[in-house]
Amino acid sequence: MQTEYCELCGAPLTKKGKLVQIEGAKPMKVCDKCAKLGTEVQAPRPASAGFGRPTVVRKGPAQPASAAVPRKRDMFDYMEGDIVEDFPKRIAAARLAKGFSQKDLAFVLKMQEGDIKKLERGEREPTEAERKKLEAELGIELLDTGSDSDSLQQGGVAATTLGDVLQVKRK
Ligand SMILES: [Zn+2]
Predict the structure, then answer these.
(1) Does the pTM exceed 0.70?
(2) Which residues form the HTH cro/C1-type domain (predicted)?
């Protein structure tokens, strides 16, 4: 075993020496004689403070992007498609663009003028047959498919994701 010396006076230490703090200096290992000059302290135990403290793993905010999962919706609801909310506006705008009066449009579509009025006022939605006639005649899209009308005919499910459709609906 290596001989240790008093850190204060340099005398070889008998036994193990003493750890002493003198006038606020850091503890030194000294001989018995020098130990009287200061205050004996306990051997430092590095583990005493903060030992075994569990590592707190901060929970960060939830992963962005992946959190936005669209609500599930009945597939058939989507397959059939909904009449767009602003169909009255679309019908009226397209009719006016063609220079049709409501009466003209009713005549062309073999519908009642009152029905055109109701549709343009949003009092009721067009029936399936009416919708198809209106779309064909006016060149508009009245189904909320999220994209062009063709994609619905040939299986819009593959062409458009459900999420896309829902996004459009939320507008
Ligand atoms: Zn000494």
Answers:
(1) no
(2) 91-152
Task: Examine the pLDDT at 122 and tell me if it is beyond 90.
Answer: yes
Q: Are residues 85 and 138 in the same domain?
A: yes
Whose CA is closest to 131, among 121, 143, 123? 143
Measured between alpha carbons, how far is 145 from 133 in angstroms, rounded to an integer?
A: 17
pLDDT of residue 112: 96
Assess whether 83 and 42 both reside in one domain.
Answer: no
CA of 39 to the centre of ligand 1 (A): 14
| pLDDT (tens digit per residue) in 47-104 | 544 455 555 566 666 555 555 556 555 555 444 578 899 999 999 999 999 999 999 9
Quote the CA–CA distance of 149 and 98 in Å, as a whole number.
20
Q: How far is the CA of 79 from the centre of ligand 1 (A)?
A: 94
Residue 98: helix, strand or coil by DSSP?
coil
In a domain, 153, yes or no: no
How many Å lie between the centroid of ligand 1 and the Cα of residue 10?
6
Same domain, 142 and 80: yes
What radius of gyration do the chain's Cα atoms show?
43
Q: Could you tell me the distance, in angstroms and rounded to a whole number, from the CA of residue 1 to the centre of ligand 1?
A: 20
Q: Which residues constitute the domain of residue 21? A: 1-57
Q: Ligand 1 mean position to 45 CA, how many Å?
A: 23
Q: Ligand 1 centroid to 22 CA: how many Å?
A: 12
Round the average pLDDT of the chain to a whole number and report it. Answer: 77
Q: How many A from CA of 49 to the centre of ligand 1?
A: 30
